[in-house]
Amino acid sequence: MPPGDPQVVPRGGRFIGSSAGAFLDQLAADIYLQNIWTTQGRVRRVGVACVSWGLSLAMIQQAVAPQPGRPGNWSTSVTLRHLLRVDDPGPQEMGVQPVLLPNNTPPGEDIFVINGRGVRGPKLPWHHRVTLRVRAPGRRGEDVQLHYHKHAPRKGHGPEPPKILPKVKGRHYIFDEVIYSTQIQNCRRAKPDDPQQQN
Question: Would you say which domain of life the source belongs to (predicted)?
Answer without folding.
Answer: Eukaryota
